[in-house]
Amino acid sequence: xxxxxxDLNAPHSMGTTIIGVTYDGGVVLGAxxxxxxxxxxxxxxxxxxxxxxxxVYICRSGSAADSQIVSDYVRYYLHQHTIQLGQPAxxxxxxxxxxxxxxxxxxxxxxxxxxxxxxxxxxxKIYGIPLGGTILELPFTIGGSGSSYLYGFFxxxxxxxxxxxxxxxxxxxxxxxxxxxxxxxxxxVRTVTINKDGATRKFYPGESLPLWxxxxxxxxxxxxxxxxxSPEPMVS
Amino acid sequence: MSKIAESVPxxxxxxxxxxxxxxxxxxxxxxxxSFLKTGTTIVGLxxxxxxxxxxxxxxxxxxxxxxxxxxxxxxxxxxxxxxGAGTAADTEAVTGIITLIxxxxxxxxxxxxxxxxxxxxxxxxxxxxxxxxxxxxxSSQLKLHRFHTGRDSRVVTALTLLKSHLFSYQGHVSAALVxxxxxxxxxxxxxxxxxxxxxxxxxxxxxxxxxxxxAVFESKYxxxxxxxxxxxxxxxxxxxxxxxxxxxxxxxxxxxxxxxRNYMLPNPRTYVSEKGYSFSKKTAEVLLTKITPLRELVxxxxxxxxxxx
Lengths: 236, 309
Known about the structure:
- The complex is a heterodimer of chains A (236) and B (309).
- Chain A is 31% helix and 30% strand.
- Chain A has helices at residues 2-8, 64-85, 91-104, 151-157, 164-181, 222-227; strands at 12-14, 18-23, 26-31, 35-37, 40-43, 49-51, 56-63, 111-119, 123-129, 136-138, 140-143, 189-195, 198-204.
- In chain A, α2 (64-85) crosses α3.
- The two termini of chain A are 31 Å apart.
- Chain B is an alpha+beta fold.
- Helix content of chain B is 31%, strand content 22%.
- Chain B starts with a helix and ends in a 45-residue tail after the last strand.
- The interface between A and B is medium-sized, with 23 and 27 residues.
- Chain B: It is found in: Cytoplasm; Nucleus.
């Protein structure tokens, strides 16, 4: 019991896969949905893509508490900024607010973030803010524990000026590849596409994701049992 | 005036110095006094029209059961309740029920380590009486907020207050909570971890028995349960925790719009002494009998003036 209870007391962390890519006309943000406390999956359907404003979203990884608090503070500051400015905040401002909090509290925070959005001045932009509080404006970026498995994949597959459809397919494929290899990533894939028309959320349940090398078809899975009319009676 | 300012730490916030000292002492070999933990099973479930919370009733102190029938479902607002797992003192303190204020602990300035006081307090009192050292207790804050706004409390308000409180103590307040309630926006269920992170879920379990209870939920939960089905499922999940987890036991408490204390008692005391517990009059020898009628000492005046303002 001690090993398990020790794990349950471990800080809630999102060993994650988070991705942000730009395409011609906007950005696509993607993430898995597993939140773990030690070896136990505390939430298998968490939402790691949080809204900051109507046109800017943030992908959270690392310590769940730290990333939630940072995004709450930035949402609050951005709200004030929007009122004072009189128009929607730019992605650059949002990313820099995140960076200021991450950098100035670098000793206490343990969270890697990806800020993505669309504004009328710069169009679709992705900013990566890893541990320590660096800010990097990039055409695409990946983060979280599952990202280790995606660097080579992106080097090969990435190209500028993709269409929205291509970008979404790329993100879903990448997250599902990372889920296949990283124990700390799993669950469902969530994406948010942000362009001049606003933000659209999409949800890809685990069974809709492609299977990769050596992965087996689900057999007698819980999903089938639940959707069946009644469970089979136990026969002794 | 400047002298008073000097005794206050220059920066605001909690001072973690004594926490470091405690860790250093443990490393040197000091045996930490065990505090009252609710090795627990707490669950929450959203059904068609609302939220059901469930909890077991065992409070442990290391391997000993300190309280066989404690209350783990705490009041936050008339429409919001919160189950607490972790250190009993911490869950009680943070949700706002004070059953006892330790006067000599209160005298210790708030700037001295809160964790030391909790340690000390929990060591002294083996039941889950709590020293209210921090002034912001969430249910009190919610009540004030209700007075201020003139509206019923919302679950997200309680959630934000709890999460900020726990985050500011960086996980040292060891309270894992399942917060549920129904407000104008609908039914809500959240889990809050000691470090301050939260999840919003249709069904949730926390505590040492959470794995056992989650197994029940994962196999039997579906959307659109009725109230009775939901209550049965919650009771089943708690029973699973009670029977399969050593840290949980005794009875099942349920909250669904009203608090059903000891909804189920699956662990009755089966041994009943044959001799019984009544003692006949001849058991103790009477040495002296003195009866003093009090009526003679008190003067009863009838009539008199009516009370006037």
